[in-house]
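We include the entry.

. . .
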Amino acid sequence: MIELEKYITVEEFFYEKDDVVNPHASIWGDFNFCLNGILEYEIDGHTQLSPPSYGIWIPSRTTHHCKAIEQTKIHYVAIRFHPNLCQHFSKNAEILGVSFFLRTLVEEVLNFKVNANNLNIYRNLLQVLLDQLIVAPKYNHYLPQSNHPVLKEVLEKLSSPKNLACSLHQLISQAPITERHLLRLCQQELNMTISEWRNRAKILYAITQLRQGESIKKIGYDLGYNHSSSFIEFFKRYTDQTPNQLKSS
C-alpha cells in the first residue's frame, strides 16, 4: 500500500477577523476550505472567496495569501498534496465543491489518532479523500465578476443588501439592454446563469449575517422569504448545512 501519509497532509487552523496569511508559494499543491465561515484569497492577483461547501485548489508554486473577513473565528482546513499527486488536479487555481460526505471525511481525518495499529486505516481514509477531491465539481470562481460596464452595474445591484428581497426580474428589467441580451451576456462573461449568480450572492450574505448572530427569521426576510422554512431549504441546498448547523459549528 502506498504510504499516502507522506504525500498528503491535513491541517487545521483558526483565524480571527482581519488575520492575514502573507503571500507565499509552495512546491506542494494546496486545497483550502473553511468549515464554518468565509476566507478571502488573492491568488496571482485574482480575488477568490471560499465559503462553506466550496474550497480553493491552489497549484504548486502559485503565490497566494488570504484574509479572514468575518467578525467571528473561522475554522480553516489546509490539505496539502505532494507534487507527484498534483497531476490529478488543474494547473490553474479553481473552486471545488465540498459535499457533506467530503466535509465529514475531513473531520474524521482531523480527529484520527494515527498509531502503528491503525496506519492502514488512516491511509485508506487519505485515499478516499484524494478520490473525492479528484471527482469533486470544479468551477473557475465562486462568485465571478465582470468588467463589462452594463453587467458590472447589474451585478452590483443584484448583490446589494437593500435589493436582495427584490425579484430578479424586477432588477434586471431596469438594465439599459434587453433582458435576453443581459441573460446571454451573463452566461458568456460569468459562465453561469444570472439567477445562479444571485443565489450565491445571497448565500454569502446569509453566512456573514449568521456568523454575526443575526436571527434566521430576519435573514430569511431580508432575502425575500416569507417563511423561515423556505430560507432554510434554500440555504441547505447550497451549503449542505442548515443555518443552525453553521451557527453552531
The chain has two domains: 4-139, 149-248. Residues 203 and 238 are 7 Å apart (CA to CA). The first strand starts at residue 8 and ends at 15.
